């Protein structure tokens, strides 16, 4: 019986091929079709998480998004609502770590590398006293042992719900360059 070939009839081979195809499909790992599950190209966390951030200048800091809230009225001249985040930045290097409300952006859509994405920098015209969120976090830098703390508000273009916050490097050659991000719900 050595060297003898066994032939399978055509209807049987077709049924066998179909069975193998069904088995392969049923046992193969399935991808997630949800587009919101995109991985970001930078470290991310949720509200309350601290992320160690290194800027292009090699300056480092631990940046914590303490919380995020939706303020229903009083945010702008028209009295509309807004998202407000609270940040704490602790310097960890002798090189100054820079920050600015315009480089901490917010969006209603998930992270993706798209220069035309609906991102919005923090508002420099919001009346933080009216909405009882003081002090505002404007711009500056911290070095080893120094701490900056404050609030950043975003106008009505960033809607209530899931909000994607990015901490961008203002000094990167291809600015804005996201260094860290948080997904929060307001």
Written overview of the protein:
- With 186 residues, the chain is mainly beta.
- The protein has a single domain, classed as Immunoglobulin-like (Sandwich).
- The protein has one helix at residues 10-27; strands at 44-46, 50-54, 60-71, 82-91, 97-100, 104-107, 139-142, 147-154, 162-169, 177-185.
- It has a 4-stranded mixed sheet with strand order 1-10-9-6, with no helix packed on it. The chain has a 4-stranded antiparallel sheet with strand order 2-3-4-8, with no helix packed on it.
- A hairpin with a 5-residue loop joins strand 2 (50-54) and strand 3.
- It starts with 9 loop residues before the first helix and ends with a strand.
Within the CATH hierarchy, at the fold level, what is the topology? Immunoglobulin-like
- Count of helical stretches: 1
CATH architecture: Sandwich
Q: How much is the average pLDDT? A: 81
Query: Percent of residues in helical segments?
Result: under 10%
Unreliable runs: 19-37
The level 1 CATH classification is: Mainly Beta
N-to-C span: 74 Å
Q: H/E order of the elements? A: HEEEEEEEEEE
Largest sheet: 4 strands, mixed
Strand order of the largest sheet: 1-10-9-6
Shape: globular
Estimated radius of gyration: 25 Å
Structural class: mainly beta
Q: Give the domain tally.
A: 1
- Strand coverage percent: 35-45%
Counted beta strands? 10
Helices and strands in order, then pairings?
Blueprint: H1 10-27, E1 44-46, E2 50-54, E3 60-71, E4 82-91, E5 97-100, E6 104-107, E7 139-142, E8 147-154, E9 162-169, E10 177-185
Parallel strand pairs: 1-10
Antiparallel strand pairs: 2-3, 3-4, 4-8, 5-7, 6-9, 9-10
